[in-house]
Specification:
By secondary structure, the protein is mainly α. It folds into two domains: 58 residues, no CATH class; 145 residues, no CATH class. The protein is built from eleven helices and no strands.
Length: 230
């Protein structure tokens, strides 16, 4: 049984990655910029020249003041409208695009990171515990046959990108959960609360499928996709 010190260190670094905080959203950045700009304008002191200009300028008409106010409003940054499920509205291709960008930025990116980090964690832990041929030892025979078929289908179309060199990149999130459950004893030295991890992955499975099949995730789905136990 191989232990592989390098693989163990790699696992620890990967587990730390799962607690990385997401960067602030564009909306939060815009709000911060607006507040900073307002504060800077408010704190600017009026010079004597400013006072003299105001005193010498003719009285403006009400209409002129309204025009200037309207022009000033056009210079303010436009806050994006809240994105909602496009299926609840009349057909609008721009609304579909907005929905796609919202799901892609806020949900899919997290799922992409979680699922691929789990692949790397599974591969690293089982390589450290069982050796380079862990797939033959730890994966269910039916899953091995299914993955062989998937790899062959990609091999028949070599002009497309392939999932990866190792079989672990051809399995789905539900398959990864089964591998971790079946081989939980191998994960305990690195992830003592592996049972909580597999339970959390099972909670993510359906929301993940909602996004993977290009449907609209609800607030509950989005909450489920936040990540794994720390």
């Amino acid at each position: 049984m191989a232990t592989g010190g390098n693989e163990s260190d790699r696992v620890e670094r990967l587990l730390a990655l799962l607690s990385i905080q997401q960067p602030k959203t564009q909306r939060e950045k815009i709000v911060q910029l607006n507040v900073a700009g307002f504060t800077q304008h408010r704190n600017r002191r009026s010079s004597p020249d400013d006072f003299r200009r105001r005193q010498s300028s003719p009285v403006r008409s009400q209409k002129k003041q309204e025009e200037e106010q309207e022009e000033a409003l056009t210079l303010l940054p436009v806050m994006p409208k809240a994105v909602a499920d496009f299926r609840n509205f009349a057909f609008d291709s721009s609304r579909i695009g907005a929905s796609g960008r919202d799901v892609g930025a806020k949900v899919y990116s997290k799922l992409y990171a979680i699922e691929n980090l789990i692949r790397v964690v599974v591969h690293s832990v089982l390589t450290a515990q069982l050796g380079q041929n862990w797939w033959i030892i730890a994966a269910d025979p039916n899953l091995q046959r299914e993955v062989s078929w998937r790899r062959a289908s990609y091999g028949n179309r070599p002009w497309h990108s392939t999932p990866g060199k190792h079989e672990v990149y051809y399995v789905y999130l539900s398959d990864l959960t089964k591998i971790m459950t079946t081989n939980s004893a191998q994960f305990v030295p690195h992830i003592p609360d592996v049972d909580q991890w597999t339970a959390r992955l099972e909670q993510i499975r359906l929301p993940r499928n909602i996004v993977g099949h290009m449907n609209w995730p609800t607030k509950i789905d989005r909450k489920e996709n936040r990540g794994l136990p720390r």
